[in-house]
Amino acid sequence: MTSFSELGLSKPVMNAVASLGYSQPTPVQEQAIPLVLEGRDIVAAAKTGTGKTAAFALPAMDGLPRAKGGKGPAMLVVTPTRELATQIGEVCSVVARHTNLRVFTVVGGVSYNPQIAQLRRGVDVLIATPGRLVDLMGQNAVNLSDVQVLVLDEADRMLDMGFLPSVKKIVAATPEARQTLLFSATIDDSVMGQVGNLLRDPAFVEIAHKGETADTVDQYLFRIPQLAKPVLLNALLQEKGGTRIIVFARTRHRADAVCRRLKRAGISAEAIHSDRSQNQRQRALANFAEGKTDVIVATDVLARGIDVDQVNYVVNYDLPHEPEDYVHRIGRTGRAGCTGWAVSFVSPENEIDLKAIQKLIGQQLPELALPGFDFEAAVAQAEAKSAAREASKDPDIQAAKKEMAKKTRRKNRAKAREEAEREARIQTAGTAGGAPEAKLSLPKGPKKPKTAQKPKGAQKPKASGKSQTVHKSNPAQKQQVSQKPKPVQGSKKALAARGGKAVAPRTDMRPGRAHRAAAQARHRSR
Question: What number of other Cβ atoms are within 10 A of residue 161's Cβ?
Answer without folding.
Answer: 15
